[in-house]
């Protein structure tokens, strides 16, 4: 928040260049993950965090954000809400970036439905959207190496482990699923519900349709939610 993944070279159309993420040539993931949030409210099973951002070299628009976290007996729900507190429309993107254990030989599989898949350049930018039929069955995450954005996601992903299954569901605004596992021997996988394709700002400026960017008017509000439910296997 206020965008997911990368903007190539930090070049936000119509604005001064954004500061690149340290060690990167691109700007990365916006400001939400790099700023201190304040605790607005908290109880034993939930918390509400808040962030006020004012235009700077990392993001040239004013916004307020809240993140609500609710714990159940075997579930976690997060709701991210962004308000445009500035005087001009803001190109908004949002997403979640959960990491999950996925070591080789662990027996982890991913089940998810999508309709297309963006290729990726060596510097992690999307290129060449290709139609992709619904995945015929769970993907074995063990040998998977991936950093791709999947389009037409139906909002549900299932990670199955030998002892339990994790079911992720996300808001309909999250029509894109970014999957990230940097190497075949990585011990984790990131399954990321997001509202737009990486580098959406430049892609839209180049005439690419359906990038998922939201033009948020002054005073307007958008929110997304993600729920994760753990189902423990019962030995039969």
From TrEMBL:
<dbReference type="GO" id="GO:0005975">
    <property type="term" value="P:carbohydrate metabolic process"/>
</dbReference>
<dbReference type="InterPro" id="IPR008183">
    <property type="entry name" value="Aldose_1/G6P_1-epimerase"/>
</dbReference>
<dbReference type="InterPro" id="IPR014718">
    <property type="entry name" value="GH-type_carb-bd"/>
</dbReference>
<dbReference type="Pfam" id="PF01263">
    <property type="entry name" value="Aldose_epim"/>
</dbReference>
<dbReference type="InterPro" id="IPR011013">
    <property type="entry name" value="Gal_mutarotase_sf_dom"/>
</dbReference>
<protein>
    <submittedName>
        <fullName>Aldose 1-epimerase</fullName>
    </submittedName>
</protein>
<dbReference type="GO" id="GO:0030246">
    <property type="term" value="F:carbohydrate binding"/>
</dbReference>
<dbReference type="GO" id="GO:0016853">
    <property type="term" value="F:isomerase activity"/>
</dbReference>
């Amino acid at each position: 928040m206020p965008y997911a993944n990368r903007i190539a070279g930090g070049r936000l159309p119509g604005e001064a260049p954004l500061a690149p993420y340290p060690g990167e040539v691109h700007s990365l993931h916006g400001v939400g993950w790099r700023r201190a949030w304040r605790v607005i409210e908290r109880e034993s099973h939930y918390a509400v965090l808040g962030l006020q951002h004012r235009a700077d070299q990392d993001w040239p628009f004013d916004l307020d954000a809240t993140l609500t976290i609710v714990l159940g007996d075997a579930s976690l729900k997060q709701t991210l809400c962004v308000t445009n507190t500035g005087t001009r429309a803001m190109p908004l993107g949002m997403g979640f970036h959960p990491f999950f254990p996925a070591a080789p030989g662990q027996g982890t599989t991913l089940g998810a439905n999508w309709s297309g898949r963006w290729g990726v350049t060596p510097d992690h930018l999307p290129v060449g959207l290709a139609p992709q039929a619904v995945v015929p069955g769970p993907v074995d995450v063990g040998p998977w190496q991936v950093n791709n954005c999947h389009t037409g996601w139906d909002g549900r992903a299932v990670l199955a482990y030998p002892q339990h299954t994790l079911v992720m569901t996300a808001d309909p605004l999250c029509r894109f699923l970014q999957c990230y596992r940097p190497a075949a021997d990585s011990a984790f996988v990131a399954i990321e519900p997001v509202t737009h394709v990486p580098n959406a700002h430049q892609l839209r400026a180049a005439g690419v349709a359906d990038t998922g960017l939201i033009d948020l008017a002054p005073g307007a509000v958008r929110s997304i939610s993600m729920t994760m439910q753990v189902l423990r296997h019962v030995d039969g």
